[in-house]
Amino acid sequence: MNKTNDPFKFSIDVILYPLLLVLLIWFVFSIEIRFGYRFNKYGIYPQTLKGLRGIVFSPFIHSGIKHLYSNTIPLFVLSAALFYFYKEVALKVIIYGILLSGLITWAIGRPSYHIGISGLIYVLFSFNFFKGLFAKHYRLIALSLVVIFLYGSMFVYAFPVDEKVSWEGHTAGLITGLLFALIFKKKIAKVTKYDWEQEQFNPEDDEFMKHFDEDGKFVPTPKPDEIEEETPSSQLSSTQSSPNIRYVFKENKDNDL
């Protein structure tokens, strides 16, 4: 079977990694419920040395079942889209996205514990949306439209509309996703360019363009029976002259025996 260079191929990673992320945040929450622990103190506490640990731990800590459930579906959908359309850079976007968005939250956040994986969700939302527009590939643009249709209202919560919501973490995620959309250019699906769109294309060497004159008018190719070939006079005289026939007689030696 011939292998194609189609960058959009389904693999088990499209389901596996998003599922692992979802299971991980639910596993941490189940430990809190089962043993009565509260991990809020491991969240991001801005502008304190101790609060830096929350950059790594805060995405996996949630305040309650409602908070956890509201993050589960968009986390799975957006991360699955990331691994399908941008599989070569998906892990980098997630790992670096957690670190950079967390650092920005630590730098600009209010003096309170910031927890939840919504910062990463905003990274995924921002990257999937902006990268499709920048790449100009029709499938990636379609993904951008789907993302903005499903989760366009997320833009609202990147502003301080609710004091109980960490809008700083959301804003940090939006900024991080946009930066990644600008930075990650390699191994992204490129727009197909045809021969006539290449810089080195020469119309005079193209077989198709030879069928058009300087004014762009089509010049039909003559049919084979309309092509007249001139026969050189020297060949014509030789073909019209009678051929010379030579006979060679050999003596039959068998009669002498």
From TrEMBL:
Protein name as it appears in the record: Membrane associated serine protease, rhomboid family
Assigned protein family: Belongs to the peptidase S54 family.
Domain of life assignment: Bacteria
Species the sequence originates in: Bizionia paragorgiae
Region (Disordered): 214-257
Membrane topology reported for the UniProt record: Multi-pass membrane protein
UniProt biased composition (Low complexity): 232-243
Localization per Swiss-Prot or TrEMBL: Membrane
GO biological process, one term: proteolysis
Residues annotated as transmembrane: 12-31, 93-109, 115-133, 140-159, 165-184
Chief location category: membrane
